[in-house]
Every structure is written in C-alpha cells, then in structure tokens.
Amino acid sequence: MSQTYTLYGAPASLYTGKVRAYLNYKNIPYQEQISSMGVYKKIILPKTGVAMIPVVKSPEEEYWQDSSIILDKLEQRFPSKPILPETPKQRMLALLFEMYGDEWLRLPAMHYRWNFPKQNLEFIKSEFGASVAPSMPKFIQRWLGKKVVNKFSGYVEPLGITQENISAIESWYEEFLSQLNDLFSQQDFLLGSAPSIGDFGLMGPLYAHLYRDPYPGQLMKEKAPNVAKWVERMNKSKDVNGGFLPNDEIPEALEPILKRLFSEFWPALLNSCKNIEVWAKDQAPGSRLPRMLGMQEFRIGNATAQQMSLSYGQWMLQRVLGHYHDLDETDKSAACQYFSSFNNDQDPFDITLQAKVKFERNRLVLA
What we know:
This protein is of the alpha+beta class.
C-alpha cells in the first residue's frame, strides 16, 4: 500500500494553505490534486458529504475534512517535530492564534481580496477558473472563474466588512502586520525557531489571500517584509528542526496582539456561542446546526458593524477549552494568570457553554 497522502485543495484556498504548509513542515509524503468540478463531483462530495476544501485522503483511503481535524489526525501519526507546545502558556497561545487566524483574519483576507478589483480581479478570475476547470481552454476558465468570483465576493458584507468599518479593519491589519514584522525580525516563528499550530493558523489567510493576491501581497512586502519572508519560510520548512522558546516564554511583541484578540475577537466569539445556546433550546441532540444563526454586532477599533453569527467558532473554542482543562492545576494557574492580564484581569477560559457542538459526518450537530 502506498504511504502517500492526497491533498485536495486549491492555491487560492485559505485553509488549503494552512494544511499544505503543515504537510511540508512534517515532510509527509503527499500529492496535491486541484479541487476541480470533477473532483468535487466524483470524490469530495461522495466521500465527505460536504462541498468544502481542503480534504486529505490517507493511505488507508480515509477522507478527512476541516483543517484543524486534519492537523490533529496527522499529529497523531507524525509526532516528531510537534506543533503543540508542552508548556501551558505557549500551548494556549498557539491554540488561540490558530483560532485567530482561522476565524478573525478572515476579515482582512476577504476585504483585501474583494474590495480591490482593479488590482486583484483578473488574477482571481484566472486562479478560480484554473482550479474549477484545469483542463479547459483559458477563455472558458475565465468565464467559470467569473461565476465563482460572483459567488464568493457576495460574502464580504455579511462577514462584517462594510463602508463603516473598512478603515478600522485596514488600520488593525496594518498594525498587526507591523507587530509580526517586529517579531520576525528577531526570530523565525511565533514561539521560537520552530512553527507551532498558531503559525499554521495564521498561514492560511496570510498566504492564500494576503500574500498571493496582488494588492495585499504588495502591501505585505512593502510594509512587513519579515512577514512575507515568514510566509515563504513556512512553505519551505521541511528542513526546520528548531524548538520553542525555553521556560514557557511568550515574546513581548505578541502581547499587543493578545490585547486586541481578547477585546475584539473574544466578545464576538462568545456572542456567537450565546446564539447557539438560544437556538439549542428548541432542538434535540443530533440536530444539525445552521452555519449561520442570524446577525450580531461586533467591534474593531472604534467602528461597529453587523456580521453573520457563525456556528463553527464554538467548535474551535471548545477545542481550546479542552486543552485548557487538560492542564494540571499548576499549569492551569500559570496560563490563567498570564492571559487574564489581557482580559481585564478575568480568566478568559472560565467559560461554561450550555450547548455543546460536535462534528458528525463532517457537519456540526448539537451534542
């Protein structure tokens, strides 16, 4: 039996970028197959039941969907060069940054991809068209690419990217780039000389949208060249054999990012969990969650807007809380003391979720 894995994805796909970088880092033998219309019809939908990428096929012909689940399963099989730190503060920070990349950096990723059509549109149409129908002539690819563009560009405003907060999103993102740029001038990855799961979480948006697309790519290279070098390093990391910083150290450069994570992302995440709790009161266990449960208010900087209340974030939060509660009391106390300082001196992990969710056949259901 072949020991080669198959990654079904696309170059422009945010979460494919996360998984591809991980496969490269672990030097896992894999082949990548573009998720064309034929692949969706013949493989992805029949094997997973959902029209989502990335998907990884194992040598045993198991099909895994969802980037975090894929990384968790592969970590069990390839434990060398672990991406989850053993020490409590670093472990929780790495998990938080994975969630931050997956859930919150979607805002600048979508804004800079879709709100600069003069610079990006032709490139994006070509990218999507080549992924959907790689064997078709260019003119057909561009026509198909335009149809995909029309679909995905329509998500911009529902995700919470509006005229009222675009300047706040840009200001926050450029501040974030500057902070990472300073960090990567001193070390190669978030927590030292080896990437953590937090690096892979950031890699999805920072590579697929914000490095590859023409306008944000130029912005990154001009304003944060060390971040651009980090992106390139993440994609070519198979020979990296470093480690995390000693003594559970967290670089000071990450502290202002943590402050904004807990002041802006965390309230929005907890609000979405409350919406699930309200929905769950009239549902039986096993009920399938809608991907969206109405709209909710959120804030970036001094700007407020409405965004879709998405259910997936709670599953990510449950995953983080699970790791927190697995810590022994001493480690839990150390993590609590550190992260409380960025959350108005309150333990951010002291959360009781009345309604739990789980994956069943690649869909979220009420546990």
